[in-house]
Design a protein that fits this description.
Strand order of the largest sheet: 5-4-3-6
Mean pLDDT: 79
Number of helices: 6
Order of helices and strands: EEEHEHEEEHEHEHEHE
Length: 207
């Protein structure tokens, strides 16, 4: 397959398109053929040497992509039959392997953004509840829309500025996954809610 390779850390000129070996999937992964990819801040940091992939992960940059199934293992064939389109993280490459997870069609998807144009765009992509975090209290709105429960999983790319509010938005036994730190690394937090509601907080590199 073709992919973008970081030949040396530093400037964009170090990026080259090269032919590399196709990825090999494990029993809990799905292989997709990439149709579209995006450039994220994490990709830039990786090129500069500030965001190395964890041990065992792909060395190639690219955290966001969409595409279609390229191959399935027997477990995936049971649950993904007929479902062709997959959107997740992992390119610019031609093929990418992703962790396989079963998803419920009853899940309600919340999204926050800072202007109405972004909210409308995400609504078209399938978000159920779109909240302008600059004009609304998103914790209150999440609680209202979820019948007072909160969300089971919160994916955050902002970091310190909204850490406490993110925790306050979670349901009992909820999980907060931090995938970025656009607004800082240091936050003051009341850990009492984490104990009381059995909350989990995780940091991910997205590789």
């Amino acid at each position: 397959m073709k992919t973008v390779v970081i030949t040396s850390l530093g400037d964009p000129e170090a990026l080259q398109i090269q032919e590399v070996e196709d990825p090999k999937i494990k029993d809990d992964e799905v292989l997709i053929k990439v149709e579209a990819a995006a450039l994220s801040r994490g990709d830039i940091y990786q090129r500069q040497g500030f965001y190395p992939p964890p041990q065992g992960a792909s060395p190639y940059p690219g955290l966001e992509c969409s595409g279609c199934q390229a191959s399935l293992n027997p477990l995936e064939k049971m649950f993904l039959a007929g479902k062709q389109e997959i959107r997740s993280m992992g390119a610019p490459v031609e093929l990418v392997h992703l962790p396989f997870r079963l998803q419920s069609s009853k899940e309600q998807r919340f999204l926050t953004a800072g202007n109405e144009q972004k909210l409308a765009f995400c609504k078209d992509l399938g978000a159920d509840v779109c909240i302008n975090y600059k004009t609304e209290d998103f914790v209150a709105r999440v609680k209202e829309e979820s019948g007072g429960k909160g969300v089971d999983v919160f994916l955050d790319s902002v970091g310190a500025a909204y850490f406490q509010q993110n925790l306050d938005s979670l349901n009992i036994d909820g999980k907060l996954f931090i995938i970025g730190s656009l607004n800082g690394f240091v936050a003051e937090v009341n850990i009492g809610a984490m104990f009381a509601n059995l909350l989990g907080n995780f940091g991910l590199t997205n590789h």
